[in-house]
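Long-time lurker. I teach an intro course on protein structure, and each term I like to show students one example going from raw sequence to a predicted 3D structure in token notation. This year I'd like something fresh instead of my usual example. Would anyone be willing to generate the tokens for the chain below so I can use it in lecture? Attribution to the forum is fine with me.
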Amino acid sequence: MFVREKLVRLVVSFVLLFLLSVSFSAVLQSKEPLTFAIGSVSWREPKEESVFFQEWQKRTGVRIKLIKMDSSAINEKINTMLASGDLPDIMSCTRTIANDYGPQGAFIPINKYFDKAPNLKKYFDVKKNPWLYGPDGNIYILTATWPYLAWGWVWNKKWADKLGVSAPKTIDDWVTVWEKVKASDPKAIPLGTQGTGLLYQFFFPTWWGITSEGLVMERGNLRDPWLTPEMKGLITFLHDIYDKKLLYQEFLTATNETFYSLIAQGKVFSIVHYKGVPYLQAKAPQDVVNALETLPPPKGPYGKSGCDWMGPTSWWGISITSKCKDIDSAVKFLDYLFSKEGTYLYYLGVKGVTYEIAKDGTIRFTQKVIDEAKKANMDLDTYLVTNYGINLIFINIPPLDPKLHILHAKAYGQPENYLKGLLIVAKNLAKYRPPIWLTAEEQKRVNSIMSNISTYREEWVSKFILGKEPLTKWDEFISGLKKMGAEEVEQLYNKGYERYLKTVGKPKGYVPPIKYDLTGLDKIVGLSK
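-- Reply from a regular --
Happy to contribute to a lecture. Here you go:
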């Protein structure tokens, strides 16, 4: 009798718990979905029914309704929303928009909710990753937190072996090698690139001690490098190698088709560009691709070296608006993408369905999706985006550290030399610029001045490199920069830098270190046995 009563009570309790759980689940499901305004492009269109969005909602218990903003008119759409005050719960936008309108109340300070977002709290600790914070000490947007590894210095190793030259260690060594290339074949292109950006904004400036953001640290203060002797030295160097025909003579005007064709024909000895260009986009024969090798960065005239990079944040991101009907759910929804599971979901899909992880840690896409892509006559990347919603452009906020970046590229079957190049860049990342926390008014002033300076500078620098203006006019050029407000921008940057230092309690000259775990990657990409 006693046992029977106990059994009845147990059954009743179980039924009640079941009913309560069903009821609670119904309440969750009855919640109105959060509206999510997201950028959209035809070849990477976000779809609510895709595996990615369905899994994201399922794993977080947060429902969403997408509002697609065509990328061709996205800024107009965002500005209309902000002007009308008719905002969605969550939206993709630029850092500038978020940091301009956030302090005005259009977006919530996400860091105020970090206690409910363990992954965000970890990644955006103000002392470790302060680059997203605004001058008021708040984060109004979430962007990717990863270094851009796709720039590299590539040379034709087979060609180098034929000339009997070893890998150059310094810029002077490179000039010597280029001169040998030109001497052996007058029609050869010793150094190929496109545009001036990779010459005086990114690659070469790093070796002259200048960051990708165009800043020099001098006795604890930030300097505009254009106002220093170092930049004149760099432009003089670029003019010299152009004048000697060591630099591709059509670097300013060549189309992608023309430049890629020269690479494919094996006419370019060394390349300063996105690594994807020589390895993937040039569509070169396999023997040319196999001959290409990414080299460690050389040392410049002041002993500086390193691979330049964009990061650790991105230009576009996702914000939560002040009109959000359920901020806790929105924070929970976005926080998930910064967990390991969420990051893998975004970049790879669902484990066991789209990808698998081998015992050695390498990632492989399943035979299922490989066969599906072949049947659909699509490359794997396009197929996974189109049919599973993986790796959408306007949601690329999950952290892609170098290890995952390389494993991800390997899973897609990228050439071994390309993978080695990614790791070489990761091992030689240059010191990044310090955080600069400008107010909205200061940022607008900087933008206003720089819009004019950028055009003026590009015109002068191109003429200097091509020899259309003599470098004896350098002082005249600098005088023009100062008249246009270059020194004012320098002062504003220092003001923003000092604002950051005061918040974290660090002395002048401090730049937070950025470190990544590269353990085991040498073996995975074939740099060691």
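Some talking points for your students: Confidence is low (pLDDT under 50) at residues 10-30. The first helix runs from residue 2 to 30.
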